[in-house]
Design a protein that fits this description.
3-stranded antiparallel beta sheet, two-stranded antiparallel sheet, 25 helices, binds protoporphyrin IX containing FE
């Protein structure tokens, strides 16, 4: 403790010295108003021509400049203290020594760098709020000016150069340059946005822990154990397969990956390891009540929980604490390909456009092996050959069902790459990779909007938000003002509804494998009895649980459990994460979504509200997941509203949405081909499974969903991607011994424009030509050729009927 005070004193002194040295450059700092082009040296201007707004800006600038060295020294002091937890062995360099360490805690170094600036911005905001007496409700508005000295530090102040990618047919790997006016929208390593301002205890960054009536909120673990407990009997969703759950998780990993705090040198924080966990600003340990129905038998009183890392806002202004998405926000297959160049390159063979594969003779064509075990999986001691897997998202190994879906889509990419290469278009590895990635991304979007979302949201909401794909033609609904960024309320609450769908077990080889045994477990993927096939078949053959307040004990007691009694509780984590992120209250979201009052069964509402001092305190996750479902859907109206708005933004705010027209577009015939995609077909093409339900999300026990044979399922029709001449069309009828046929040159992107040489049409003699007529006919053919050459410029593509007309008119005038 004394050491901490000493450090603090030294750093405070250093802060004062820094402040003095800063004061000279202070007057040269610029305050940039993002709505204006010109930079203004506000302090100097204020001295010459004071007016209220400028003085206010100048005051803010001075406050910020004053605060910077103070906050920086506080951060350094805090880092020293954090290091002491590492040095004393409380935090673990070997992350596997931390209770229920999971892959969601594998934070990248880049996120940690951004967070160091986020921490600074939060500190400065708090300082300014206090010094300038800014009311809580208007923190972000009052601090909405960009300030040069903060801009210099802000990771988002340099916008990417999009001149090359603007016209590109392909998305960038990191999602930048999609929106050409806001080039950072949707990029990986950018903040989540919010529907409503955050609700923090101090208005700026402290997790919500206080009731609106004062006093503490109910403990997250208490709400979980009393409200989110597992039902005794199965409460499955009668129509939906467990695949519905698993695809939801796979999709979630495409669009979001929160960045969680790490310790010194990337160690795993152990927030239960120190005697004063509340003194660690990165910790928000979950308290376990002494009378806990499960954990008390293990005398466990604390569950590890680290706070999500802070990030500056995308516009680099000060304000409330925000959280960081490490993945691209778009539905673009980034869980398969990665969200940054380095990851994407590391997953490629760099030959034939294919992705790397792993596996062995008995279990071939698996994902590449994570030979260094960077994902920290649980590997069997008995088989050194078994390794975890690499994919675009590090959480791939979280459970064996997720690994299976990843494997299937990796195979689909490679299948498409091989199909494209076989067309002999002369495409390079890069073009084949890009085009195959584009097709797989489009398939994912099609499956999401056509098959997955309708089961979640129901028909009426799909229609209301314009989420249904078209049957044909282009979608002309791109809106450049629509911000696709993932909303915090969606990531930290609404889209976690899927946690309630998880069954106690995975069906595998016709037996039930408890979920707790498939966490971080690659071994069953290598199983000769079926691995990926068997798990995938099990997902379509078993039910999803109902979306309600109940969650499987495998998630609420045994999450990533390594030692009996020391697993995690995902319901408690969801509630605590909501408080950590300052997620708005359930009542606020209900109001903004215009949801009427009676959306819970009375017994459910009573059970939930009785846990809180006041209904206004109720956490969004708990109340949202327990609402009665909307007609035709499986979630309640508040979550449906948040989720529908998000998927609307992901569709209309994505320039590369697969149904869009434009420079980047598929041709209409390619688009029709993409529209044939179903998840079941993708499964058929990439596993040895013989029968699947026609719609993989619905159980085949449902009359609307018969089983289909995989035998008839072919690969996509690659001919739609072939460059050069199409096959010859049919001959026109024979007119006076002459007939014509046509072909077209397919030089859509990415074909090279000089791909076709030769004629668009071919003319031949027909009928019984007598020798004497021959020279005449040959002369006519030459004349007709000249006419067709001239005429074809009048048509985009000349069709056979036009050719027939031209032939007839010509022969009428020049009969042989
Ligand atoms: C076996 C199944 C699953 C397990 C074990 C699991 C586990 C987890 C864990 C440990 C987290 C991190 C929690 C935190 O620290 O805040 C998480 C986050 C999340 N999960 Fe799941 N999950 C599963 C399935 C699903 C499904 C089916 C969905 C949706 C349909 C889903 C949606 C989410 C979302 C949206 C997040 C937040 C992601 C982020 O922002 O990083 N999960 N899950």
């Amino acid at each position: 403790m004394e050491e901490r005070i000493m450090h603090y004193a030294i750093y405070s002194l250093l802060g004062v010295l820094l402040l003095l040295s800063c004061s000279k450059s202070l007057t040269l700092d610029k305050v940039v108003n993002p709505t204006e082009d010109s930079d203004t040296t506000l302090v100097q201007t204020a001295e010459k021509a004071p007016n209220q707004q400028i003085l206010k800006d100048a005051t803010l600038l001075k406050t910020v400049s004053d605060s910077l060295p103070i906050i920086e020294s506080r951060i350094k002091a805090a880092a020293k203290i954090e290091k002491s937890f590492f040095d004393s062995g409380i935090d673990h360099a070997d992350v596997r020594n931390t209770d229920f360490f999971g892959p969601h805690m594998l934070t990248s170094a880049k996120a940690v760098d951004i967070a160091s600036v986020g921490e600074l911005f939060s500190g400065v905001t708090k300082y300014a709020v206090e010094k300038l007496n800014i009311p809580r409700q208007s923190i972000d508005q009052q601090l909405s000016k960009r300030i040069g000295i903060l801009d210099e530090r802000c990771p988002f102040s340099n916008v990417p150069d999009c001149t090359r990618s603007a016209a590109s047919r392909y998305r960038t790997i990191d999602g930048s340059c999609n929106n050409l006016n806001n080039t950072l929208w949707g990029r990986s390593f950018t903040p989540f946005e919010r529907i409503l301002p955050a609700v923090y205890d101090n208005g700026v960054d402290e997790a919500r822990q206080t009731s609106v009536l004062g006093g503490p909120l109910p403990l997250a673990r208490k709400i979980s154990s009393q409200f989110h407990q597992t039902s005794l009997k199965d409460h499955f969703e009668p129509d939906l397969s467990h695949m519905n759950m698993e695809f939801g998780q796979f999709l979630s990993h495409d669009i979001q990956r929160n960045a969680l705090s790490t310790g010194t040198f990337g160690a795993a924080l152990d927030c239960c390891g120190s005697s004063e966990p509340e003194s660690r600003s990165k910790c928000l340990a979950i308290e376990i009540p002494a009378d806990d129905p499960y954990y008390s038998q293990f005398n466990r009183t604390c569950m590890n929980f680290v706070r999500a890392l802070p990030t500056p806002k995308l516009d680099c202004t000060l304000g409330q604490r925000q959280q960081l998405n490490q993945n691209t926000h778009y539905i673009d297959g980034s869980q398969i390909y990665g969200s940054d160049e380095q990851t994407s390159t590391s997953l490629r063979t760099l030959s034939g456009g294919t992705l790397k594969t792993g596996g062995d003779a008995t279990a071939p064509n698996l994902l590449p092996k994570d030979t260094n075990n960077a994902a920290n999986c649980i590997l069997p001691a008995s088989d050194a050959n078994v390794k975890c897997f690499l994919a675009g998202d590090v959480r791939v190994n979280q459970n064996s069902a997720l690994i299976s879906i990843h494997t299937i889509f990796m195979r689909e990419h490679n299948k498409i790459a091989a199909g494209l290469e076989a067309l002999n278009n002369g495409w390079s590895d890069q073009i084949i990779y890009d085009e195959a990635r584009k097709i797989v991304g489009a398939m994912l979007q099609h499956i999401t909007y056509k098959e997955y979302l309708p089961e979640i949201l129901g028909d009426a909401i799909m229609n209301k938000y314009g989420l249904k794909p078209l049957a044909n033609g282009y979608f002309n609904g791109y809106e450049s003002k629509m911000n696709p960024t993932i909303k915090n309320e969606f990531a930290a609450a609404a889209f976690r509804f899927g946690h309630s769908q998880v069954h106690d077990s995975l069906k595998y080889n016709n037996k039930a494998q408890y979920f707790k045994d498939v966490f971080l477990n690659p071994a069953i993927i290598y199983d000769t009895a079926g691995g990926v096939d068997s798990i995938t078949k099990g997902l379509t053959d078993s039910y999803s649980q109902k979306v309600d307040e109940r969650m499987s004990s495998h998630l609420t007691r045994h999450l990533f459990e390594r030692k009996a009694g020391f697993g995690g509780d995902l319901a408690a984590i969801n509630i605590q994460r909501g408080r950590d992120h300052g997620i708005p209250l359930y009542q606020q979201m209900k109001t903004i979504c215009n949801v009427s009052s009676n959306v819970h069964e009375p017994s459910v509402w009573n059970a939930l509200s009785s846990l809180y001092r006041n209904p206004s305190d109720i956490d969004l996750f708990s109340a949202g997941v327990s609402e009665k479902p909307v007609p035709g859907g499986i979630i309640g109206p508040t979550f449906a509203c948040i989720i529908a708005k998000q998927f609307e933004a992901l569709k209309k705010g994505d320039r590369y949405y697969y149904e869009n027209s434009g420079d980047q577009a598929f041709t209409l015939e390619q688009l029709d081909e993409i529209r044939q995609t179903t998840l079941s077909k993708v499964i058929c093409r990439n596993t040895g499974i013989s029968f699947v339900p026609t719609n993989a999300f619905i159980k085949d026990t449902n009359v609307r969903n018969q089983k289909m044979s995989c035998k008839g399922v072919s690969a996509i029709d690659y001919s739609k991607w072939k460059c050069g001449w199409s096959n010859w069309g049919t001959w026109t009828s024979c007119v006076n011994f002459i007939q014509v046929r046509l072909r077209t040159c397919k030089q859509q992107k990415p074909c090279a424009t000089d791909f076709c040489t030769g004629d668009v049409f071919e003319i031949q003699k027909c009928g019984s030509v007598r020798n004497v007529e021959m020279p005449q006919i040959e002369a006519k053919i030459e004349q007709l050729r000249a006419i067709l050459v001239t005429q074809q410029n009048n048509y985009d593509i000349m069709d056979v009927n036009t050719a027939q007309d031209i032939l007839q008119t010509f022969m009428h005038q020049n009969a042989v």
